[in-house]
Amino acid sequence: MARTGNKTLQAKLVLLGDMGTGKTSLVLRFVKGQFSEYQESTIGAAFFTQVLSLTEATVKFDIWDTAGQERYHSLAPMYYRGAAAAIVVYDITSMDSFVRAKKWVREVQRQANPSLIMFLVANKADLEDQRRVGNEEGEEYAKENGLSFLETSAKTAQNVNELFYEIAQRLAKAK
Ligand code: GDP
Ligand code: MG
Questions:
Q1: One Pfam family name from the record (predicted)?
Q2: Structure confidence by residue, pLDDT tens digits, 89-108
Q3: Bridge-partner residues for 51, per DSSP?
Q4: Which of 5, 25, 80, 82 sits between 20 and 30 A of 18, alpha carbons compared?
């Protein structure tokens, strides 16, 4: 993370998780305030910037979303390199995506910088009737592995701004 001005922090933030868990949708909800049921699974633009102004600092996020590489269940190390924060996403309606999220967590913990802020995010919380992964399961795993945890919905916007604000706040406090 580079300090670009008096109280401006620039932070690389990466999103990880299986295809279809809603990574792109979370970013688009945060950056554009939009949601689409027909979000293309691979999109051309995989890089977004967003500035959050807090009382402590201004945080400029460079957000790296994957453009389909996640289907191979491995990402190039350059994807994580220099990341200040990582969001690992699973879908509450898919136990497979939760199992895979744990693999992403381990991969990041192996490769990334130890001061990296990592969030485990249980997305699609609006699909309660199709839930396969209990809230406590996610919460417990996160706790045991030193991660922060939130349930979100890119569709209803539940906890989406909170997620990014929380990361920004922690980055601002760390610096
Ligand atoms: P990605 O492959 O991880 O980037 O996932 P996408 O953002 O492309 O989303 C995959 C599908 O899930 C799309 O059809 C989205 O509309 C849908 N989706 C994403 N987030 C949510 C959510 O919070 N709730 C619901 N109901 N659908 C979602
Ligand atoms: Mg995507």
A1: Ras
A2: 999 999 999 999 999 999 88
A3: 60
A4: 82
Closest CA to 55 of 175, 170, 169, 171: 169
Q: How far apart are CA 59 and CA 16, in angstroms?
A: 21
Helix (H, G, I), strand (E, B) or coil at 105: helix
Helices 23-32 and 160-174: angle between axes, nearest 10 degrees: 80
CA–CA distance, 96 with 83 (Å, rounded to integer)? 26
Look up residue 59 and give its amino acid.
V
CA distance 73 to 83: 19
To test the pocket of ligand 1, the residue of 28, 34, 39, 155 to mutate (highest count of ligand atoms within 8 Å of its CB) is 39
Angstrom distance (rounded) from CA 21 to CA 123: 7
- State the distance between the two ends of the chain, measured CA to CA, in whole angstroms: 9
Smallest CA-to-CA distance from 35 within 43, 44, 27, 45 is with: 27
Identity of residue 114: P
Does the pLDDT value for residue 163 go beyond 80?
Answer: yes
Sign of the Cα torsion 66, 67, 71, 74 reads: negative
Helix (H, G, I), strand (E, B) or coil at 61: strand
